[in-house]
Design goal:
Elements: H1 3-12, H2 19-25, H3 37-58, H4 64-74, H5 77-87, H6 97-101, H7 108-126, H8 128-140, H9 155-165, E1 172-179, E2 186-193, E3 198-204, H10 207-225
Antiparallel strand pairs: 1-2, 2-3
């Protein structure tokens, strides 16, 4: 095992039984077909549950809506990017030459995705308790407080709350198209609300960013159709 990977395991406080999972979690699609995106998909869900566990215990008097807003602020790209930087992930990422030249190793979206992939890798390697313990350690370093609920909501969170308040199903996000070279991709995402027969599109430099753009477009459509934004 490379010394730098061994050092990362020390920072993560997790020794991998299957080191290949960690290697995959650090591999961008521009470098290899054996990249981190499936692990990122898994890690995103594990992260959401682990942060929910964390907040449920830490902010015991906060109502559900405020807990959702605090969680949204904790799992957003900016927060995950900073945690990834603190872990020293940037120099360990395996990127294609084009992505490396364009500064991909420091791109917030890539670092945030890699951190989610690592969480997914630990989940596969040792189960939920190990992944939850990592999330607990990471977020214990942050100043998590009820005031975070007052920070502006991102469009996906706002759209989710709008629909939940009306007892409607959550939107479905799908990648419609991926444009550009592997090291400089643009994602075209559709946000669909089947009950209302509405679809809006969003384009961004990452899947997450495109989803936010699509959610923002959907909110504009909903507010334009409902009197006084109701």
């Amino acid at each position: 095992m490379k010394p730098e990977i061994a050092q990362l395991q020390l920072r993560l406080q997790h020794h991998f039984n299957r080191p290949a999972l960690l290697e995959q979690a650090l591999t961008h699609r521009s470098f290899s077909s054996d990249h981190y995106e499936r692990l990122e998909f898994l890690g995103d869900s594990v992260l959401s549950l682990a942060v929910s566990d964390f907040l449920y215990a830490k902010l015991q008097n906060l109502p559900e809506g405020d807990l959702s807003r605090v969680r949204a602020n904790l799992v957003r790209q900016e927060t995950l990017h900073q945690l990834a930087v603190d872990l020293g992930l940037s120099p360990l990422l395996k990127l294609g030459e084009g992505e490396m030249r364009s500064g991909g190793a420091k791109r917030p979206s890539i670092l945030a995705d890699a951190l989610e992939a690592i969480i997914g890798a630990i989940y596969l390697d040792a189960g939920y308790p190990a992944a939850q313990a990592l999330v607990q350690r990471l977020f214990d370093k942050l100043d998590v407080n009820p005031g975070m609920a007052a920070i502006g909501k991102d469009p996906k969170t706002e759209l989710q709350e709008w629909l939940q308040a009306r007892k409607m199903q959550l939107p479905d996000y799908k990648v419609v198209n991926t444009l550009g070279a592997a090291h400089q991709q643009t994602f075209d995402v559709a946000c669909e609300i089947a009950q209302l027969d509405l679809v809006e599109r969003g384009i961004g430099g990452s899947r997450r960013a495109a989803e936010q753009v699509a959610a923002s477009a959907m909110l504009q459509t909903l507010h334009s159709k409902a009197p006084h934004g109701n």
